[in-house]
TrEMBL record:
<dbReference type="InterPro" id="IPR008988">
    <property type="entry name" value="Transcriptional_repressor_C"/>
</dbReference>
<keyword id="KW-0805">Transcription regulation</keyword>
<comment type="function">
    <text>Acts both as a biotin--[acetyl-CoA-carboxylase] ligase and a repressor.</text>
</comment>
<dbReference type="InterPro" id="IPR036388">
    <property type="entry name" value="WH-like_DNA-bd_sf"/>
</dbReference>
<dbReference type="InterPro" id="IPR036390">
    <property type="entry name" value="WH_DNA-bd_sf"/>
</dbReference>
<dbReference type="Pfam" id="PF03099">
    <property type="entry name" value="BPL_LplA_LipB"/>
</dbReference>
<dbReference type="GO" id="GO:0009249">
    <property type="term" value="P:protein lipoylation"/>
</dbReference>
<keyword id="KW-0436">Ligase</keyword>
<feature type="binding site">
    <location>
        <position position="187"/>
    </location>
    <ligand>
        <name>biotin</name>
    </ligand>
</feature>
<dbReference type="Pfam" id="PF02237">
    <property type="entry name" value="BPL_C"/>
</dbReference>
<dbReference type="InterPro" id="IPR003142">
    <property type="entry name" value="BPL_C"/>
</dbReference>
<dbReference type="GO" id="GO:0006355">
    <property type="term" value="P:regulation of DNA-templated transcription"/>
</dbReference>
<feature type="domain" description="BPL/LPL catalytic">
    <location>
        <begin position="69"/>
        <end position="261"/>
    </location>
</feature>
<dbReference type="Pfam" id="PF08279">
    <property type="entry name" value="HTH_11"/>
</dbReference>
<dbReference type="GO" id="GO:0016740">
    <property type="term" value="F:transferase activity"/>
</dbReference>
<dbReference type="InterPro" id="IPR030855">
    <property type="entry name" value="Bifunct_BirA"/>
</dbReference>
<dbReference type="GO" id="GO:0003677">
    <property type="term" value="F:DNA binding"/>
</dbReference>
Length: 324
């Protein structure tokens, strides 16, 4: 409700001072009973609101939950993250984003979930998305581009996320083609780009982003424990504020996306190559039609991986898993 939002806004602006019930009811133009009811509701959601006789209320803690209020506070983007749909639990934010895209929701609309029960990766693989541990989200973009440029958006997203993580948390990341973000060799982020397109034009792109933020070692299933990590684990177990990270990611993504639409892929490509672990190395690419071994030359202007085989022949890889 709007009282709830205004109440949160007042508490956020008045971090240190107590505000009396009387003042709140005047400010928000409602009864003191209404104020009291909303404060009780906020407490049930995990907000910590102190009440002190004769002084009033003060908010001293917020739930570790992603909510629209918290993420949108101080968000400086024009589009990305300005419309957020939140779910406590959902099979996959991708599914919801696809539906919203088809309903015509605007570019930059985001679907967030605290938990995904059937989070998906590429090729029908699954993405482990335990409750409250990460940022599990899907973003709708509507670039006016031909469909064959869509893979560039995966690389763009990877670059934007790496830059956001590095600047916000001071953690060094590497990118493994096409969509893995690794920290100390382990996967911390996965990106899945899906498309609605006609023959010559993209209608919408759904960029699915899964970031292991506060996932603990025990929360990873045993088969992932050696392959996966979380930002918190890489920070020695410190708990990381998901809302601020989400905000920085939106800003970074929007900046990259706008530059890309204006100037094309070249500068993203350069940045991407600078973060890449696979380029310039001997690699094995496992594709659905078999294995290709060789030297990773780079990526094309389309975002396609080029591997030079021992006989000098160049293979163009559109989809594969890379082993270093
Ligand atoms: P991918 O196919 O490259 O990676 C999936 C593989 O990664 C799995 O087979 C497994 O080995 C490993 N894996 C699974 N879960 C995790 C995890 N939490 N951390 C590290 N490794 C893991 C990557 O696909 C694309 C993932 C996109 C996920 C987002 S979350 C929001 C959106 N909704 C949705 O359903 N998917 C996207």
């Amino acid at each position: 409700s709007s009282i709830r939002e205004e109440l949160l806004a007042v508490f956020n602006n008045e971090k240190e001072t107590y505000i009396s019930g009387q003042m709140l009811s005047e400010k928000l133009n409602c009864t003191r009973t209404a104020i009291w009811k909303h404060i009780e509701e906020l407490r049930n959601e995990g907000y910590v609101i102190e009440a002190v006789q004769k002084r009033g209320y003060r908010m001293t803690g917020r739930p570790d939950k992603l909510s629209s209020d918290v993420v949108k506070r101080n968000l400086t983007t024009n589009k990305i993250g300005q419309n957020i749909h939140f779910y406590e639990t959902t099979p996959s934010t991708q599914r919801i984003a696809h539906l919203l895209a088809q309903q015509g929701k605007p570019e930059g609309t985001v679907v967030f979930a605290e938990e995904q029960t059937e989070g998906k990766g590429r090729l029908d693989r699954s993405w482990h998305s335990p409750v409250g541990a990460g940022i599990w989200m899907s973003i709708i973009l509507r670039p006016n581009l031909p469909p064959q440029h869509a893979p560039q958006l995966t690389l763009l997203a990877a670059v934007a996320i790496v830059r956001a993580i590095e600047s916000e948390l001071n953690i060094t990341c590497e990118i493994k083609w096409p969509n893995d973000i690794l920290i100390n060799g382990k996967k911390a982020v996965g990106i899945l780009t899906e498309l609605h397109a006609e023959a010559d034009r993209i209608n919408s792109v759904i960029v699915g982003i899964g970031i292991n933020v506060n996932t603990t070692k025990e929360e990873f299933p045993s088969e992932l424990q050696h392959l996966a990590t979380s930002l918190s684990l890489e920070k020695g177990g410190d708990k990381i504020d998901r809302a601020s990270l989400a905000r920085v990611i939106f800003e970074s993504l929007e900046e990259m996306y706008e530059k890309y639409l204006e100037h094309g892929f070249t500068f993203i490509k350069l940045l991407w190559e600078s973060y890449s672990v696979s380029i310039g190395k001997q690699i094995i690419a496992r594709t659905i039609s078999g294995e290709i071994r060789g030297y990773a030359r780079g990526i094309t202007d389309e975002g396609v991986l080029m591997i030079e085989e021992s006989d000098g022949k160049i293979q163009y890889i559109h989809s594969a898993d890379i082993e270093l």
